[in-house]
Amino acid sequence: MGVIDKLKFYVWDDVGAVIDVIKKWKPRDCKTEKDLENSLVRKLKKHFPGLDVTPQYERNGIRGDIVVGDKVLIEIKYNLKSTPTLIGQLMRYEQKWPGRVLVLLTGDTKPSLIKELEEFVQEKGLGSGLLPIDWWGKVTILKK
Predict the structure, then answer these.
(1) Residue range 93-142, pLDDT digits in tens
(2) What is the CATH number of the domain that holds 38?
(3) Range of the domain at 42
(4) Which pLDDT belongs to residue 124?
(5) Number of helices followed by number of strands (H, E) in the chain
(6) Residues near 68 by beta carbon (within 8 Å), at least 6 away in sequence
(7) 66 forms bridges with which residues in the sheet?
(8) In what helix (H) or strand (E) does residue 18 lie, and over which residues does it extend?
(9) CA-to-CA distance for 40 and 122, rounded, in angstroms?
(10) pLDDT band at 49 (very low <50, low <70, confident <90, very high)
(11) Which of 36, 69, 108, 110 has its CA 20 to 30 A from that of 79?
């Protein structure tokens, strides 16, 4: 991780720094959500050496697939079929997770489900804010 990457993560755009890595990530031979999680953990650890990348994070009544630097929680959904469980998770994260949440949608996800998630995030005020430090908001949805 270069100096600019460190500054970006720690100072002004932690979620954006993680998204930059995900955009370059090319998972191979991943057939399950767990395979994708393991592959992404390896990529994040390689890109952010010295930064804690914790798979299967569980603390204070919340669970997340990956936590990066105790600042960004990544929730991976592979072939999402419905949103109620994910919306429930986002509500718990809103209450109990002090950092940001990145919902990573992989595989086949109907556009109507993505729209439903985006509407939920906006209705709850979890999306982008007005201040530069809150550019990404509490929850960011990314389709890969």
Answers:
(1) 999 999 999 999 999 999 999 999 999 998 888 875 444 444 567 899 99
(2) 3.40.1350
(3) 3-143
(4) 87
(5) 5, 5
(6) 9, 14, 18, 44, 48, 51, 52, 53, 54, 74
(7) 55, 74
(8) helix 14-24
(9) 27
(10) confident
(11) 69
